[in-house]
């Protein structure tokens, strides 16, 4: 079925064919499985962080785990270049068959890795290598699936059809939480068994899911747009050169990054991953409750991917994406403060009654942790307070101080850092060891999480169609994949690492939110100034139509 001027309108009038519905289902299900594989690491990082990295500092191990997590995101643009080029040269279908197979094998291998106690620093090295392979595969996956589904979609329904694909990231994350929840809370494994080896099971199960995904995708035909390009001899011979070294395509690649995908990336990862991290690590909510809160919010929010995709076919895609970025930037601080108030009110009361100051020297900002890292008393004190969910004010250490760390917790003065002593002071003053499940106000907590999820659906629901419509067919896979994976992978994927490190260094548990706020505002400004909607564009149009 060729896509030509006038042809799309006819397809819109008669609706979707059975083949087109099968395309949406197979592409979306395969992408769900890829996202499931990729997100397992994020959901399980708090459990295996201390197993793959040297002991001694839990926050340092977690930061290193997040750095390894981010490495997969940092490598995604390289996958976009490699597989985007293949997709524009050889076809969309064959390319995303390769990506799902590579992803599945890398994830399965993660479940077999020996720990730091067994093979030392080779353990985190192998973990990083597998994350890079995952990033390479995912870098080729999304652009192929988005391009493939869009090129099958009728005019006037591209936003709606691709919005089903946009649910896959959230559904993949949700699926990972379900599988982890079954392994961890079914009663088959004790908490100790899960922490020791049970966390490997979700990685191993992924092999079964990916085999099914490969089989399903192997039944698909090639995109009609690519078939026409091939038949007419119009395929690009140098997709990388045409995408990134020729004007105006290179300009649109940069604008797609700064005016759409960077903001989308940070809003996505704040609303899902950082919210979960904030609940479990900062607010000290038990894992089952934190997963339940986020999972329910995901379920309540997921239909809005389709709603905003449908709406974008009517009112335009860009204005919805930019509105989501702006709303997120303006409300993140009150939303996260609201989470503290409604999820762990005892922690909030403790902080108000006991202001904390830390006077110290030799404090270091730790972002990437490795064998070269050294942790001073100041670093350990900041790590301890952040792990306790507490904000503090940093002050210079007096020149005549006899200790390297002086602190006050309420009206109690402390000299030097001794974790047992500091724990005793906090306990005596009434700091709860964890959030009280009975004190959690579920309706308000879910409302806040749902609002953040709503922002995710606004920026992501229309995005696939918007990106595909920005670029000519012969370089579409390559051109749209790179800005997507830099924006989503670099700007978004680095968020847990940057936000956690900023919170530790600043002494403010909310300080890390400045990162997504600034990026979202940048995207809003660039998008509103330089981009426009192309929802009526014929996706087989001549290159001159894109100038």
Write the layout of secondary structure elements.
Layout: H1 7-14, H2 18-52, H3 58-90, H4 92-110, H5 116-119, H6 122-152, H7 158-185, H8 191-198, H9 200-218, H10 224-231, H11 239-244, H12 249-282, H13 287-301, H14 303-315, H15 318-343, H16 345-353, E1 356-360, H17 377-387, E2 393-396, E3 405-409, E4 412-415, H18 419-428, H19 442-460, H20 463-468, H21 476-492, H22 495-506, H23 514-530
Parallel strand pairs: 1-2
Antiparallel strand pairs: 1-3, 3-4
Helix pairs in contact: 2-3, 2-4, 2-6, 2-7, 2-9, 3-4, 3-6, 3-21, 3-22, 4-6, 4-9, 6-7, 6-21, 7-13, 7-14, 12-13, 12-15, 12-19, 12-21, 12-23, 13-19, 14-19, 15-16, 15-19, 15-23
**Strand order across the largest sheet:** 2-1-3-4
Please give the largest β-sheet. Answer: 4 strands, mixed
Q: How many strands in all? A: 4
Please indicate the percent range of residues in DSSP E strands (runs of 2 or more).
under 5%
Q: What's the mean pLDDT score?
A: 87
How would you describe what is shown here?
This protein is mostly helical and 547 residues long. The protein has 23 helices and four strands. It has a four-stranded mixed beta sheet with strand order 2-1-3-4, with helices on one face. The N terminus is likely disordered.
Task: Please describe the structure with a list of short key phrases separated by commas or semicolons.
single chain, 547 residues, mainly alpha, 4-stranded mixed β-sheet, 23 helices, globular, disordered N terminus
């Amino acid at each position: 079925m060729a896509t030509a001027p006038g042809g799309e309108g006819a397809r819109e009038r008669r609706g979707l064919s059975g083949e087109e519905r099968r395309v949406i289902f197979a592409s979306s299900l395969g992408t769900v499985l890829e996202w499931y594989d990729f997100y397992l690491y994020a959901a399980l990082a708090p459990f295996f962080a201390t197993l793959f990295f040297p002991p001694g500092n839990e926050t340092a191990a977690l930061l290193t785990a997040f750095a390894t997590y981010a490495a997969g995101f940092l490598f995604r643009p390289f996958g976009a270049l490699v597989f985007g080029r293949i997709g524009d040269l050889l076809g969309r279908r064959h390319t995303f068959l390769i990506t799902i197979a590579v992803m599945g094998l890398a994830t399965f291998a993660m479940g077999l890795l020996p720990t730091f106690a067994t093979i030392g620093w080779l353990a985190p090295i192998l973990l990083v290598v597998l994350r890079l392979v995952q990033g390479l595969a995912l870098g080729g996956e999304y652009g192929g699936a988005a391009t493939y589904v869009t090129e099958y979609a009728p005019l006037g329904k591209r936003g709606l059809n691709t919005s089903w694909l946009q649910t896959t990231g959230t559904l993949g994350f949700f699926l990972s939480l379900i599988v982890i929840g079954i392994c961890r809370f079914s009663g088959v494994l004790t908490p100790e068994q899960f922490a020791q080896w049970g966390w490997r099971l979700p990685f191993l199960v992924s092999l079964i899911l990916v085999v099914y995904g490969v089989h399903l995708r192997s039944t698909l035909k090639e995109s009609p747009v690519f078939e026409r390009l091939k038949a007419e001899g119009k395929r690009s011979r140098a997709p990388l050169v045409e995408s990134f070294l020729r004007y105006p395509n290179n300009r649109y690649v940069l604008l797609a990054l700064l005016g759409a995908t960077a903001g989308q990336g940070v809003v996505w990862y704040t609303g899902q991953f950082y919210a979960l991290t904030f609940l479990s690590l900062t607010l000290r909510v038990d894992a089952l409750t934190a997963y339940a809160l986020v999972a329910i919010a995901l379920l309540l929010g997921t239909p809005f991917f389709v709603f905003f995709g449908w709406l974008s076919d009517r009112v335009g895609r860009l204005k919805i994406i930019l509105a989501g970025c702006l709303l997120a930037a303006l409300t993140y601080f009150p939303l996260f403060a609201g989470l503290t108030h409604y999820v762990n009110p005892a922690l909030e009361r403790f902080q108000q009654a006991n202001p904390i100051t830390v006077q110290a020297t030799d404090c270091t900002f730790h972002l990437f942790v490795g064998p070269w890292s050294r942790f001073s008393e100041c670093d350990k004190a900041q790590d301890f307070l952040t792990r306790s969910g507490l904000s503090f004010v940093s002050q210079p250490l007096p020149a005549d101080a006899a200790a390297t760390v002086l602190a006050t917790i309420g009206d109690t003065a402390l000299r030097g850092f001794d974790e047992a002593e500091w724990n005793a002071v906090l306990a005596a003053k009434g700091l709860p060891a964890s959030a009280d499940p009975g004190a959690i106000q579920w309706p308000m907590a879910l409302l806040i999480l749902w609002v953040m999820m709503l922002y995710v659906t606004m920026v992501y629901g229309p995005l696939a169609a918007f990106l595909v419509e920005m670029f000519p067919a012969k370089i579409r896979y390559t051109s749209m994949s790179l800005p997507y994976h830099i924006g989503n992978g670099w700007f978004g994927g680095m968020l847990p690492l940057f936000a956690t490190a900023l919170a530790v260094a600043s002494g403010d548990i909310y300080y890390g939110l400045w990162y997504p706020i600034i990026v979202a505002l940048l995207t809003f400004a660039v998008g509103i100034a330089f981009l426009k909607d192309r929802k009526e564009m014929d996706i087989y149009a001549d290159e001159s139509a894109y100038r």
